[in-house]
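quick one before i forget lol
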Amino acid sequence: MPKRSTYHHGDLKAALVSTALELIAEQGIATLSVAEVARRAGVSTAAPYRHFASKQALLIACAIAAANTLSARMLQAQDELPRDEHGATDPVEATAAAAAAYTRFAAENGSGLDLIFAPELQDAGDEDLLQAGRKVMDALLPSALTLTGADARAALELLERQIAAAHGYATLLRSGFLSRRHPTLDDVAGHAAAIARTLAREAQPTAQN
């Protein structure tokens, strides 16, 4: 008898993306196999190609889903910060909150900007992916620009350093390297936030320090 899919029509596309993200978390981006995604999802190896023309198309869908989730989490973390009488948040704390949210996301999903901004996907020119990537940067850049006095290059350098630290902590937690200290996800997110605060203060123009 043919294998019966557990997914109703219209649900399979989302289920395949979710399954692919699980496999990326376990094995990394480079080793993702469409056949393995199908096997894990409980459908035929031909089924994914009804929704995705290629492995790259599936990866793009995964990157879009990851970007939308990440940007939403970072914005939520920033929205939860206290505001001054003008309704503004402290940009130092805003970048720290974003770094902590990024650490949590990367630790839980096994991917982050490495998937969202993978060169081979950006070169595909998919407009939905480019828009999703812009949402991520929109969640990060405003506070960084405020800190650097609207110096775009300095703001991007700040974000690069903050995200590198956050991604590094997430990777070390997932790899078990930190297991001797038995840190929790809250611990590593807090460490990433602390580093982000230090970097943010260092990035401010001298007159503001």
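fyi The CA atoms of residues 91 and 143 lie 5 Å apart.
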